[in-house]
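for the writeup, i need someone to sanity check this before i put it in the appendix. the sequnce is what the collaborator sent (i think, or maybe the updated version? ugh). structure was predicted straight from it, no edits. if anything looks off just tell me and ill rerun, i have time this weekend
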Amino acid sequence: RSLEEYRAAATATLDAVTKREHAHITLLSSVPFPATKYDGDNTRTERLQQMRDCLKDLAAQYKIRYIDGTTLVPDDEKYFVDNCHPNDEGMALYGKNFIEAMESWHA
């Protein structure tokens, strides 16, 4: 899917959910993907960052919360079981940092 198609789909989703009364929406982008550092092809890393940037822009446009997944778990293979999915230690950090990010909006 092209970035334009991704943006259009995300926009359509946000159009629908932001119309709901009392909706509390947080956009969460993907966590780091360490495997892209080792495959010699930077295209996936750039593409994931473009998608994160798209979500961040849409969050600002819709005035909703945004959490950058790269802030939740370090971009270090020791936190991933397969260079894609966080392991137990990575998920513990993810959970801790996610809660802190959510609580920061209610402080």
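The helical segments are 3-17, 43-62, 88-104. The longest strand covers residues 26-28.
thx in advance!!
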